[in-house]
Amino acid sequence: MLEQFIYFCKMNFSSKLLEDAVNEFSKLPGVGQKTALRLVLHLLGREKEEVTHFGNSIIRLRQEIKHCTVCHNISDLDVCEICRSNKREKEVICVVEDTRDVMAIENTSQYFGAYHVLGGLISPMDGIGPSDLFIDSLVQRVATTEVKEIILALSATMEGDTTIFYLYKKLKDFQVPITTIARGIAFGGELEYADEITLGRSIVTRVPYETAMK
Amino acid sequence: MLEQFIYFCKMNFSSKLLEDAVNEFSKLPGVGQKTALRLVLHLLGREKEEVTHFGNSIIRLRQEIKHCTVCHNISDLDVCEICRSNKREKEVICVVEDTRDVMAIENTSQYFGAYHVLGGLISPMDGIGPSDLFIDSLVQRVATTEVKEIILALSATMEGDTTIFYLYKKLKDFQVPITTIARGIAFGGELEYADEITLGRSIVTRVPYETAMK
C-alpha cells in the first residue's frame, strides 16, 4: 500500500462519515490519524450488526455505568458486588487509585476484604488536589463503620507517596492500624539490577523466612 | 498503578457494561485486553455527549456509508466527488488497491484523473481471487467509456505484481496504454542500503535527467 505517504500531510477524506469516525477514534489516547483510519476501515469490513453493537456498547457504557456508593468502584448497580457480598471482610479496607488496581488485586486471589477507590492520586503537577479524590468519603467511612485495618495499596511513585502521607495524616487519629503493601525486589528480579532505594528498603524491612514462605 | 499484574490472567470485571465495552474494543486489530481497558476507562472520563457522539459516528459510518458506483471508492453519495467533478480527466484511470491509496495519491497533488478501487489484491494465500475484486467492473468501464490511459498504482509486492499481471492480460486487447508507477530508490534513500532488485531495476529503467528534473 502507498499509505505511508499520508503521514506528512493532512488527510483528504472522500467521505464526511469516514472523516468523522477517524477524528473520533484519533481522540483516544495513543491513537493517531493513521491508526484511526486503519481501525475505521477495519470496521467497514465487519458485519453491520457487529459494528452497531460496538457503537451501542460505547454509548451504554458511558450512560448507564455507575460508581458504587460505598467504595466508588465501577459497577452496574448502586452498590458493587464486592460491597454487597457477605463473604468479604468489610472491616478491612484496601485503598487503591482506580478500578484497574481493584482488578489487579482481585486477580491475585489473595485479598478478601473491601476496597476504596480514590479515583486518582494527589498530583499538584496535574492540578489534582485532595478534594478531587474520594478522600472525604473514606474518612467518613472509617469514622462511621467498624474498621479493623486500612491497607494503602498505592503506586510507589512520588504521587503515590504523597497521597499515602496525606491519608496517613487524615486517618491516624482513628486508632485503626494503617498498613502499606510491601515494597521490595519483585519475583524474578535480579539484585544487581535493582535500584539502591528499593534494595536498601528491602534490607531494612526484611521478614523472617517463615513469614516469607507462607 | 498495579495494573501490570493483570496481563497473565483473565480479567475480573466489576461491571458487565465495562466488560462488554472492553471485549468490543479488543476485537479491533492491534488492540489487546489491556489497551482496550485503557481506552474504555478514558471514555468513562469524557463527557457523556462526546462519548455518545463517538458511538453514533461508528454506527452511522457502517450503516450509511456508500461505495461510488463508478470507481468503488468510499463515498457519502452514490457517485463520489472525484467521479462527479468536471475538473478531473475522466479518460485517465488510476487503479489502486483501496481507499487509503486514493488518499495517498490525492495528497501528492500530482494526479488529476479518475480512480478505480479494486478493494484488495489477488492473493491465493488469503483466498482472494479475481472475482472477489472489482476487476470485471474495471473491464466494463474500459470497454464502455473512452479511456486514454490506465495507470496501475499497486504495491510492489508479490500480490501487487500478480494483480498487475492479471489486469494487464484482461486489458491489453482494448488498445489503451497501460502504465505502472515508477519503481526505484525512494527520496532520501541511500544506495548502499537498497536491495539488489530495486537498484537493478532502477538502473535498467533510468530516465533522462531532464525528465527527472520536472
From TrEMBL, chains A, B:
A single GO BP: DNA repair
Keyword tags: DNA damage, DNA recombination, DNA repair, Metal-binding, Zinc, Zinc-finger
Claim: Zinc is one of the keywords in the record: yes
Family: Belongs to the RecR family.
Name recorded for this polypeptide: Recombination protein RecR
Domain Toprim: 91-186
Function: May play a role in DNA repair. It seems to be involved in an RecBC-independent recombinational process of DNA repair. It may act with RecF and RecO.
Pfam families: RecR_C, RecR_HhH, RecR_ZnF, Toprim_4
Zinc finger (C4-type): 68-83
GO molecular function, one term: DNA binding
Alphabetized InterPro entries for the sequence: DNA_Rcmb_RecR (IPR000093), Rcmb_RecR (IPR023627), Rcmb_RecR_Znf (IPR015967), TOPRIM_dom (IPR006171), TOPRIM_RecR (IPR034137)
PANTHER family: RECOMBINATION PROTEIN RECR
SUPFAM superfamilies: Recombination protein RecR
